[in-house]
Specification:
Blueprint: H1 14-36, H2 42-69, H3 74-77, H4 89-100, E1 103-108, H5 114-127, E2 132-136, H6 137-147, H7 153-161, E3 165-169, H8 178-193, E4 198-202, H9 206-213, H10 215-224, E5 225-230, H11 235-239
Parallel strand pairs: 1-4, 1-5, 2-3, 3-4
């Protein structure tokens, strides 16, 4: 899967929406008064304006949410936390934590639902109006590597620090040079300083993951959230 950034969308322009709604309401009420002879009250005018602005805002939010959903792989696009099968209270606690929007380190066996939970968390953040992004570690390293050739690695760093909520998946020592991992550490540190939640995902065990990203980076994310180990059978193999 190649990296596809989440559309940020422009801030909803409340003032312009109110001006536009006022003009439309005026035209509607003038026409209504001509047809019925009934004059509306200021309270009725304000209520109509508020309803139009609310409708326009909701339409804008639906359109933005739909455009963001297009960046999620089809396999996960329509999944929510309700689709995650909880076998026990521990699973329910994991879902609750991921739904909270806090930081976390998810590590352990393949095929145990880590990526699915990550996309469910991203979706929930979007539903709350937050700017959230999922990226594979390999894609982040590709962006850093490409920026060395006439670009600006610090801009890549700033762009990913800017997200309200960020998931970095498939962190593995097989991917990334020492320099590239330095930029992952810097990203984790910058987001920690900005008090923005970050979720790290790996198929490695805790000890290997600490050695890959560094104990300091591991501690920063863990201290703001939770370390969650995933065990059990590979669901994909079991299903096959």
């Amino acid at each position: 899967m190649s990296f596809e950034p989440c559309p940020r969308g422009k801030r909803f322009d409340q003032q312009s929406a109110e001006i536009h709604a006022s003009s439309r309401v005026y035209e509607i009420l003038v026409k209504l008064e001509r047809e019925t002879g009934k004059q509306s009250t200021p309270q009725e005018e304000d209520a109509l304006i508020d309803e139009m602005v609310r409708s326009e805002r909701e339409a804008y939010e639906r359109e933005l949410f739909a455009s963001r959903l297009e960046t999620i792989p089809l396999r996960y696009r329509n999944q929510t936390f309700a689709d995650y099968v909880c076998q026990n209270d521990r699973d329910k606690a994991i879902v609750k934590h991921m739904a909270s929007g806090r930081s976390g380190i998810l590590h352990g066996s393949n095929g145990t639902g880590k990526t699915m939970l990550a996309f469910c968390a991203i979706r929930k953040q979007w539903e709350a109006g937050r700017y959230a992004q999922y990226i594979l570690a390999a894609d982040y390293f590709d962006l850093i590597r490409s920026s060395f050739n006439g670009g600006d690695p610090l801009k890549v760093l700033r762009d990913f620090t800017d997200y309200d909520y960020l998931v970095v998946d498939e962190i593995d020592k097989k991917h990334g040079t020492q320099t590239e991992f330095v930029y992952l550490y810097r990203l984790i540190n910058d987001r920690y300083n900005e008090m923005k939640p970050t979720v790290l995902i790996s198929n490695s065990n805790r000890k290997d993951l600490e050695s890959v990203i560094g104990i300091s980076a591991f501690s920063r994310v863990a201290g703001e959230g939770k370390i969650i180990e995933f065990t059990g059978e590979d669901y994909r193999k079991k299903r096959g």
